[in-house]
Amino acid sequence: MKLIDLENLNQKRLKALQSSGIHHPSDLLYFFPRRYIDRSNIKPIGYLLMSSEPVTVVGKVIKTDVTGYGAKKRLEVIIQDQTASLKAVYFKGWKYFINQFKPGAVVALYGTAKQYGRYLSMAHPEIEQLAAPEEVDQLDKLIPIYPSNKHFSKAYISNKIIMGWVDQLLSAYSVSDFLPDDLLQKHAFPTRETGLRSIHKPVNRKQIRIALERFKYEELFLFELSMAKIKQERFQRAKGRKMKAGDLTKQFFNNHLPFKLTDGQSSALAEIRNDLAGESQMNRLIQGDVGAGKTIVAIGAMLMAIDSGYQAAMMAPTEILAEQHYFTIKDFLEETGIRFRLLTGGQSTSLRRDILSDIEGGNCQLVIGTHAIFQEKVKFHNLGLVVIDEQHRFGVKQRNEILLKGENPHLLVMSATPIPRSLAMTIYSDLDISIIAGLPAGRKPIKTAVRTDKDRKSVYEFIEKSVQQGDQVYVIFPLIEESEAMDLKDATMGFEKLKQRFPDISIDLLHGRMSSEEKEKIMSRFSNGDTGILVSTTVIEVGVDVPNATIMMIEHAERFGLSQLHQLRGRIGRGSKQSYCILMPGSAISKDGRYRLRKLVETTDGFEIAEADLKLRGPGDFLGTKQSGLPDFRFADIVEDRLLLEQAKNDSWSLIRNDPELTQTEHQPLKKVFEPYFKEKLELFGVG
């Protein structure tokens, strides 16, 4: 059957369907209702005074009347049952509706009744023609309401017409299953055909829920199956270079590291060591809360690569973050004699030429930079390991583009923001995951509080007293709508006011428009304890450890995202002293803004905060950019449907282990659907 075979389908309507992405009968069957009208609540008109819920009433048409002038014309219809009368009013499309109401006809109306003057009224109720009042018992109780759009409106495609088309398709169009029978039975899912009937012509809401779960699972299952297949093929094809810890690694951890590794760090390093010693390419994600010490783990991995005669590269999404990593790593590794360079897009041509020459010639063992590292002109001598920081800014496709810079270099990715489990199971399904649990010994949980302008005097007194006792303070200003100019203006004004308020305290200003040398100079002064208060924009977000910094005051805290606030807070609490985060919101705070501040006060658990942030913002916003690796699900929601996602992942990965090529007879229908789906995913991810 083809779309063109549908009843009441003219060229205008066909074009409207195609403009809405409906090109095939199956597209229309998967055009699910956005809601349902429940007509099980049938009431006599005289009993409606006490009801404000939508109801169904049945009555005889007594009178129709068109009132008003011009654009204000409207249709008024009086219907009557044995108990009372009711007026139905139609403002829009009244010419269409007038033909639905013939005097003496019996009709069922569905809507919300309100008292206006002498009549109860319903505005634009749904209408159903009946031969007699008794026929109301034969009406469908749940009526699907389909999404509409401008194309449908112009082509006069009403909800009733769509219902008729779907009825026709359900009767004439054959729908086969591709999910294996054992999975349908395991989860008590209906067949595809039964599921579609339950969605479009349900008997009750339970039927809708189970059918919708089945189609959500189907989407999630296909995606997870593709991720399992990518990982399996990569494992078979991508032979890794064997690496191990040598003199540099051992000397660093035994002699140069100024603190003891936590159990979480040691465990993550052991997993990396096993990966690097194996036959296959490492693809590992390091997760840990703010301050858990992910950078040290990355340094350990890079040292193993350099010990084994390979180059290592570390990439951050912005120049500021790349510079911060460069200075941090420089502090740690300067005494080891390793040759490392910083490569960013904003460097002079001569400096860039010099760095590129070092990278290609092998004189640079470790390069730190932005995505500029992986541009075409950058040639590596012998790239063995790539570390990506702030993994949530890069999708599967970007990861694979990076890996083309060497012959199957090992990949270690780090998340500066704890990743909610539902996201880790989708866009990071192709990676092994290490979680660094816990914080370094001796650190106390940060105390967080919300204070307002009326508390500013006491907050400043607290800051003054703390600095006099040797503590240091961050004062952070927000980045407003990605505008560095406004960001800088706010911070500069705040800096001047603080200098006036604290004339005896050394205060510095740090922002993104400064040169690398200026930033390093200011951060060195702060790290050395020469600066009491550092006024900063969000450049301070990641990568700076100052144990004496015990207070952070965040101005206009309501303008920050939840995960970003948690990141900022992680800059303090790096020593053994008690630390305090003071959130100073503006006067106008939204409901979401209040929730974010309250959540930050309630918990210091980054994974709990990340889950809350994901629910608030949704996956796209949470990740900061439109992820090329983030699946665009039609029915499933990876936040709300996490349990289904987990089931789909377990089932798909188990199936790939047992039948990697889908050659078993019972998997042939699945193979037929999966192969084109997988091909599309490979193109999207840039692998294959």
CATH superfamily of the largest domain: P-loop containing nucleotide triphosphate hydrolases
The fraction of residues assigned to DSSP E strands is 15-25%
Derived structural class: alpha/beta
Q: What is the helix fraction of residues, given as a range?
A: 40-55%
Domain module count: 4
How far is the first residue's CA from the last residue's CA? 35 Å
- What form results from the Cα inertia axes? globular
Architecture overview:
By secondary structure, this protein is α/β, with parallel strands linked by helices. Helix 7 crosses helix 8. The mean pLDDT is 85. It is built from 23 helices and 22 strands. The longest helix has 33 residues, at 205-237. It has a 7-stranded mixed beta sheet with strand order 6-7-4-3-2-5-8. A 7-stranded parallel beta sheet has the order 12-13-11-14-15-10-16, sandwiched between helices. The protein has 4 domains: 3-37 and 146-172; 40-139, Nucleic acid-binding proteins (OB fold (Dihydrolipoamide Acetyltransferase, E2P)); 247-436, 3-Layer(aba) Sandwich (Rossmann fold), CATH 3.40.50; 447-603, P-loop containing nucleotide triphosphate hydrolases (Rossmann fold, 3-Layer(aba) Sandwich), CATH 3.40.50. Helices cover 41% and strands 17% of the residues. The chain is globular, with a radius of gyration of 32 Å.
